[in-house]
Design goal:
This protein has about 170 residues and is of the alpha+beta class. It is about 35% helix and about 30% strand. The protein is built from five helices and seven strands. Strands 1-2-3-4 form a four-stranded antiparallel beta sheet, with helices on both faces. Strands 5-7-6 form a three-stranded antiparallel beta sheet, sandwiched between helices. The mean pLDDT is about 95.
Amino acid sequence: MTASLTLRTPRGDDEAELRRIHEQMRLEGFTFLLAEGSWGEVLATIEREARGIDLDPGRVRAEFLVAEADGVPVGRVSIRYALNDFLLNEGGHIGYGVAPEFRRRGFATQILRRSVTRLAAAGVERILVTCADANTTSARVIERCGGQLENLRTAHDGTLTRRYWIDAR
């Protein structure tokens, strides 16, 4: 049975573990931490983006949350409350990742379901979730959570991106 998962904001004592996961997933081409700099700067960026203030160009209000099971970080999610052109074509409302050692335990499905619930509570009725066309595991997770494939689009790097909509009503 999969441990129950919670989503929470990153804390000061998360640095070593989240940077470890970041380096591990960077080797797969996935950016786990979405901000750079000292840990204090990373946490400040996360707080600013969650509040939607002083956003860098191309950024929208978004929560960056640690996915934790039994007190251990197993992944992360970025929940975006608006879509700009890039997010509409490639990134979607929700971007999530699970550390390699915690995959195939149902955490991705739990992360996505909890993220959809948060967006629905904020009034977002149709939620866009995307994944690389080659990422069949993520496509199955999205479909299991109610995602309906709209189309495939060519991403900025030339790969195909699958675009799914989830009705949160």
